[in-house]
Amino acid sequence: MAESESQEGNYDSRRKNEENLRKDMKRFLEQMERHTVRAACTVYNCATIKANPDLFSTRKHLEEAFLMCREQIEKKWQEVLTESRGEGQKKE
Predict the structure, then answer these.
(1) What's the predicted TM-score (pTM) here?
(2) If DSSP codes are grouped into helix, strand and coil, which group holds residue 92?
(3) How far apart are the first and last CA of the chain?
């Protein structure tokens, strides 16, 4: 009786270890995919910049414009939230 319970415990433990291994392998594969995409983008950017140096400055300008726009949108969003909270308090 004790032997069959021990075998069941071993089976459950082994099954759990296999599940953990699968989860870990999936997580590692996803990380490797992200790193591969980053590396490919970096290589592409380096090759593009070497081929056309002006492209780097243009890209930098676009990135700065994007960040400024995003900042303005976030400020406007905060204003809208503040106004809507103020109106909610007035109604009460």
Answers:
(1) 0.46
(2) coil
(3) 69
**Pair of tokens at residue 22:** 């699968």
Q: What single-letter amino acid sits at 4? A: S
d(CA 47, CA 2): 67
Residue position matching structure tokens 């270890």: 17
Q: Which amino acid is at 84?
A: S
CA distance linking residue 67 with residue 28, whole number of Å: 32
Residue type at 45? N
**Do 69 and 63 contact (CB within 8 A), yes or no?**
no
> Amino acid identity of 3?
E
Query: Residue 90 has what pLDDT?
Result: 60
